[in-house]
Amino acid sequence: MEDAVEHWEHTLVNRVFRSDPVRLVDALRRECDDHAVVCSESRILVPNVYDIELARYVHQELGERHGHVGRALTDALARHAAEHGYEWAGPLTVHVAETRHRLANGRFRITSQALPHIAPDAFDAPG
């Protein structure tokens, strides 16, 4: 079952981004790993809010599907955290948006932060 979900996720992201989806998922996992804070031997805290900024043309390709991609990426990140025994700083949220900045790789940028009191749907568009 897990392999089927992972295959679906990679297929979805690949269709959306028309490039190797592993780069985006790996970058998201790396952002999580790079900002992990070891609090004790049994507790590793990681950021819970991830912003994925997409180049305009990539974001336009997504159209209304950016919410589905955000959920697929959230699921991938949740599995990664579970595999590593990470604890979220608050509810996990992955926000996908168009950037207004120049992107070093031309396609996306990922940033994260720990916001313990944010609602999981804080970035969802109304209605």
| Average pLDDT number | 79
Helix content: 40-55%
Instruction: Flag low-confidence runs.
Output: none
In whole angstroms, how far apart are the ends?
A: 32 Å
Structural class: alpha/beta
CATH superfamily: FhaA, phosphopeptide-binding domain (DUF3662)
Q: In what order do the strands lie side by side in the largest sheet?
A: 1-2-4
**Helix and strand string, N-terminal first?**
HHEEEHHEEE
| Total number of helices | 4
Radius of gyration: 14 Å
Number of strands: 6
How much strand content do the residues show? 15-25%
What does the largest sheet look like? 3 strands, mixed
The CATH architecture: 2-Layer Sandwich
Number of domains: 1
Which outline best applies?
A: globular
CATH topology title = hypothetical protein PF0899 fold
CATH structural class: Alpha Beta
Domain FhaA N-terminal: 2-110
InterPro entries: FhaA_N (IPR022128), FhaA_N_sf (IPR042287)
Protein name: DUF3662 domain-containing protein
Pfam family, one: FhaA_N
